[in-house]
UniProtKB/TrEMBL annotation:
Lineage of source species: Bacteria, Pseudomonadati, Pseudomonadota, Gammaproteobacteria, Alteromonadales
PANTHER family, A to Z: TWO-COMPONENT HISTIDINE PROTEIN KINASE
EC number(s) from the headed UniProt entry: 2.7.13.3
Transmembrane segments: 6-24, 36-55, 61-83, 95-113, 119-142, 154-175, 187-211
Protein name: histidine kinase
Any Pfam family: HATPase_c
Length: 719
């Protein structure tokens, strides 16, 4: 037999502890329904036990204390059931039935206390209530709780099973026991121990576990929602970018047409403003997509072995023409062994460096830009490197530096120069993925340093594809590229950077002449139709001037390959001809031929088709998908209007008409519209020879329509 006084006092202590634990649970989970009600559950039990303890010492107080205590315990069970229903969002008639049965049992208990006095019946009523409560809570957690909160549900089900067992046993085993001996029986005191000590401990533990599971489930739902929102945002941005670019390219094409067609000089600044604004918006779309794509890329880093110095030199070859156009010195200071090889995600590091150097070129108007690479720490398997991009730009205010890596934030100089305010934000987030961070130091009037420290695993030279001088193509030449079309500029620079050629860029004939007077080149790639002079005129002017490239091979860069033109080019000293559209293998062969006595290679290898699908695949190496889509959209949208404009100019400004046709033909051939481009070149040749072309334009217009159908069929098939 258990001592009832000991059980009573222990029960009070456990109830006080349960009150404290439930209060702490509520403080940590105030937003969860039902937790506040659970704080009052042990309080009501404590008040019930206290009333019994106080009243039992009074005359006839045992019966009154017993009635009040039992009623309050029944009310506490209703409070617990209601709190759990709120927590589990359970709305069912079974709870109303439980309330009604509990109310009826309270009334019955008082009846058998003061009316038909019967101790057996009062104990049976308490047992029945405990059994009904256990059955209701078991139903509640089996129906709802187990699926969502399994751990907490198991604790409550365990508690309900224990209560159901002990109170069912007491109801049956004490039925025939004499009233005077009931309180001395073990089966009377054991359920009291279970209900007053063990059950409160299980309940306090159960509600705490339920709240933890609720928080974990909420966090999981929020994470899934955030991931879904991120995917939807990425999909929305990607879709909208394509939808915005189509009318934007239409605006660009229309503005360029108006500027070319109008004879009123007052229209030019307005058209230029439209074009600049549209191009800025295009750049903003690209940067927003880049920034949004960082949320999507949750996969592992794509790491591979690279030999760092040649990799950086290749990157510099790609960026140096942009710096040289602004007469800015560009250099690489590599303070590591030449054969240093590392294991890293080279694409992400490349994107960061391109962003940082691009910013430096934009903000630096004089002086120099330097990429500095230093070793700052090492272990047996890893090196810590510091990459720094230094410029001599205007500098940045100290109070602006800490905000520069936030999206859409610009420095004072940035607001003047323009831009999206996303370049540094993108770089910073990429470095976060690489477990590094962007450091910025600056001094007004002297320049800025953007750096990051990164730990890279040592690579194995045996895994690196070693560079070599191939007998099939040359590497490392100093080349002057003279080309006015941005599309051809980018493709040619990308191709030549692949073979480590150092490229300087001129976009008109006079710039080319000036550069050839200042610099010695191994090779000159000369476009035969420039905005100010054509190729033959440039060559004739060079013969009359002193310059440093008297013996330098000059290659004609042209799509005009008629026999008369080829004869003229060769007579002027052209070493070889690089036909347009630009193909990597053709370019490599021409560069190789230029350095020996081999005869010129004049085969253009153009397939006479409406649309050449290989053209887009060639351009994929030089442009992103969005850039390539923008180039094609702009050309397709403006092609017919430019053709009509050429017809209108035939009688009033033939020279301007020839220029438009030349640019259209070069772009058409580069983009794969072979028959259309070849037809335009034929018309250009006739106009230069002053032959009639009235019947040609109708044929070209029909040819363009057929070419467009072929291109759209290719696009539809690739979706």
């Amino acid at each position: 037999m258990l001592d009832l006084n000991t059980v009573f006092y222990t029960s009070i202590s456990v109830t006080v502890l349960m009150s404290f634990l439930n209060f702490l649970t509520w403080r940590a989970n105030k937003s969860i329904p039902g937790t506040l009600l659970y704080v009052f559950y042990p309080v009501v039990i404590f008040v019930a036990l206290s009333c019994f303890f106080i009243l039992k010492s009074l005359p006839s107080g045992v019966s009154l204390g017993s009635g009040i205590c039992t009623s309050m315990l029944f009310i506490a069970s209703l409070l617990q059931a209601y709190a759990l229903c709120k927590f589990l969002d359970f709305k069912h008639i079974s709870f109303n039935i439980f309330i009604a049965v509990t109310t009826w049992l309270i009334i019955a208990f008082w009846w058998f206390l003061y009316g038909d006095v019967n101790l057996h019946n009062r104990i049976l009523i308490v047992d029945l209530h405990r059994i009904i409560e256990a059955l209701f809570l078991s139903y509640l957690f089996i129906k709802i709780g187990l699926n969502t909160y399994p751990n907490g549900s198991y604790i409550y089900l365990c508690n309900s099973a224990l209560l159901l067992a002990v109170f069912s046993l007491r109801a049956f085993l004490l039925f025939d026991v004499n009233s005077n001996e009931i309180t001395q029986n073990l089966f009377f005191s054991l359920p009291i121990f279970m209900a007053g000590i063990l059950s409160p401990m299980l309940i306090a533990t159960g509600i705490a576990v339920l709240c933890n599971e609720r928080r974990a489930l909420h966090l999981k739902n929020m994470t899934e929602k955030a991931q879904k929102d991120s995917e939807l945002r990425g999909l929305f941005l990607s879709t909208m970018s394509h939808e915005i670019r189509t009318p934007l390219n239409g605006i660009l094409g229309s503005a360029q047409l108006v500027m070319n067609q109008s004879n009123d000089p007052r229209d030019k600044p307005y058209c230029e403003a439209i074009i600049n604004s549209a191009e800025s918006l295009n750049l903003l779309i690209d940067k927003v997509l880049d920034y949004a794509s960082l949320d999507q890329s949750t996969g592992p880093l794509y790491e591979e072995d690279i030999e760092l110095k040649p990799w950086l030199e290749n990157l510099c070859l790609l960026l140096s023409p942009l710096a040289e156009q602004k007469n800015i010195k560009f250099e690489l200071n590599f303070n590591l062994p030449d054969q240093a090889c590392y294991y890293c995600d080279q694409q992400k590091i490349r994107q960061v460096l391109i962003n940082l150097v691009g910013n430096a070129i934009k903000f630096t108007d004089r002086g120099k830009i330097k990429i500095q690479v230093d070793l700052i720490g090492s272990t047996a398997l890893e090196h810590s490197l510091r990459f720094a991009v230094e410029d001599t730009g205007p500098g940045i205010e100290n109070d602006e530096i800490e905000y520069l890596t936030e999206p859409y934030v610009q420095s004072s100089a940035g607001k003047i120069k323009g831009g999206t305010g996303l370049g540094l934000a993108i770089s910073s987030r990429i470095l976060d993925k690489l477990k590094s961070q962007l450091n910025i130091s600056s001094e007004l009037g002297k320049g800025s340093i953007f750096s990051f420290d990164i730990t890279l695993g040592l690579g194995e030279l045996s895994l690196v594809e070693q560079r070599h001088q191939s007998s099939e193509y040359l590497t490392g030449l100093n080349i002057l590229l003279v080309e006015d079309l941005p599309l051809n500029q980018k493709i040619a620079i990308e191709f030549m950077a692949m073979d480590e050629h150092k490229v300087k860029l001129a976009d008109n004939g006079q710039s080319a002449i000036d550069m050839m007077q200042k610099h010695q080149f191994d090779l000159v790639l000369l476009d035969m139709n420039l905005p100010d002079f054509n190729g033959p005129e440039v060559l004739k002017k060079l013969k009359l001037l002193k310059h440093k490239n008297q013996r330098t091979p000059i290659l004609a860069f042209t799509a005009s390959l008629s026999p008369d033109e080829i004869k003229e080019y060769l007579s002027l000293g052209i070493k070889d001809i690089v036909g347009k559209p630009i193909k990597l293998e053709k370019l490599r062969q021409a560069l190789l031929n230029s350095q020996n006595t081999q005869a010129p290679s004049l085969v253009t290898e153009l397939t006479p088709v409406l649309y050449d699908e290989t053209a887009a695949k060639t351009l994929e190496n030089s442009f992103t998908e969005d850039e390539l889509s923008s180039i094609y959209n702009e050309f397709v949208l403006s092609a017919r209007s430019k053709l009509n404009r050429c017809q209108e100019l035939l009688n009033t400004d033939t020279e301007q008409s020839i220029k438009i046709i030349h640019r259209q033909a070069s772009t058409a051939l580069q983009l794969g519209f072979n028959l259309y481009g070849m037809a335009l070149k034929k018309v250009e040749r006739k106009l230069l020879d002053k032959k009639p072309t009235e019947t040609e334009f109708e044929h070209i217009s029909e040819l363009w329509q057929e070419s467009l159908v072929g291109y759209l069929a290719y696009v539809k098939g690739s979706l």
